[in-house]
Amino acid sequence: MEGEDRVHKDFKKLKGDWQKIGRERPYWGVLTNELFLPESIDGNIDKFYERGRKVVERLREIARENDFAFEGKRVLDFGCGVGRLSLAMARYAKDVVGVDISEGMLKEARKHCNHGNVEFMLSDNLEEFGTASFDAIISLITLQHIRPLLMKEYIGRLLRLLKPGCYAFLDTRTEVAIATGTDETSRYMEVHFLPGDEVEEIGTANDCVIRAAVPRGRKDGNMGFIFVFCKNTT
After folding, report:
1. Across residues 67-86, what is the average pLDDT?
2. DSSP strand E in 154-202: where?
3. Phi first, then psi: what are they for 227, rounded to 5°?
4. Domain 2-231 is classified in which CATH homologous superfamily?
5. How far is 153 from 72, CA to CA, in rounded Å?
6. What is the dihedral of CA 100, 13, 226, 30, to 10 degrees?
7. What is the Cα–Cα distance from 27 to 104, expressed in whole angstroms?
8. Which residues contact 149 (CB under 8 A, 6 or more apart)?
9. How far apart are CA 190 and CA 45, in angstroms?
10. CA separation for the pair 114, 110 (Å, rounded)
11. Other beta carbons less than 10 A from residue 66's beta carbon
C-alpha cells in the first residue's frame, strides 16, 4: 500500500506540473530553449517541428539497424506533448496515436495536425488501450521527468501494449552525475533517472529483450540511452 500511495502522489504532482507547463509554456516545456518561449515561438515554430523531423529520422535509422521499420505500423507516441514526433512519424506510419497528460499541450498538437492518420488523446494511465495493441512505441525526453517508482510503472505498461515481435524505443536517463537544469527549468519540471539494470529487469518481466541501448548524450553532461525493446514472440 505504501508503494501505491507513493505512486499516486507522484502522479498527482506530475500531472499538476505538466498541466501548468501546457498552459504557460507548451513548446518550451518540450525543448527548453528561449526560442520556444511564448513570446518567441511564433517566429520559430517551423524550427521547432523541424527538430522533431530530425529526431524521427534518427529513430528510423536505429530501427533499421535492429531489423525493424515504422512503415505501415500502428505507433504510440507516449508523452507526445505538442506533437513534435507524432506529426513527423505520420509520414511513415499507418497510424499514430499521441498520448499526454497535459491538455494544453494536446491543444497545440491538434492545432498543427493536418494528417488524417494521427490521433491525440489525453491519457493518465494508458488504460484506454488493450494488451498487444501497438506495433511500435516511441517515447523520448518524457520518462526522465517522471519519478522512479512511477517511471517503472509506465515502462511496464508501455511494454505490455506491444504486439509480439514488435518494438519500443524508450529514452531515459540512467544516471544523474551532476546537477541538472537551471533555476528556471527546475521551477517547472523535475529530472530523474533509472539505472540500466532496472530498465532491463522491467523488460524481462514484460517478456521483452533489449536489442540495443543507443547512447544519448545530454548537453548538461548526464547520460541517457534510447533503449530498443523487442517483444518476444513465444
Report:
1. 98
2. 162-173
3. -85, 125
4. Vaccinia Virus protein VP39 (3.40.50.150)
5. 29
6. 60
7. 10
8. 3, 6, 7, 10
9. 25
10. 8
11. 15
Domain ranges of the chain: 2-231
Taken as a whole, the chain contains a residue count of 234
User: pLDDT of 100-148, one tens digit each?
Assistant: 999 999 999 999 999 999 999 999 999 999 999 999 999 999 999 999 9
Q: If DSSP codes are grouped into helix, strand and coil, which group holds residue 164?
A: strand
Task: Take residue 201 and report the three cell numbers written for it.
Answer: 529487469
What does the DSSP assignment read for 78-113?
ET-TTTHHHHHHTTTSSEEEEEES-HHHHHHHHHT-
Tell me the C-alpha distance between 110 and 146, whole Å: 24
pLDDT for the residue 179? 44
Amino acid at 39: E
3-state secondary structure of 210: strand
Q: From CA 20, how far away is CA 208, in angstroms rounded?
A: 35
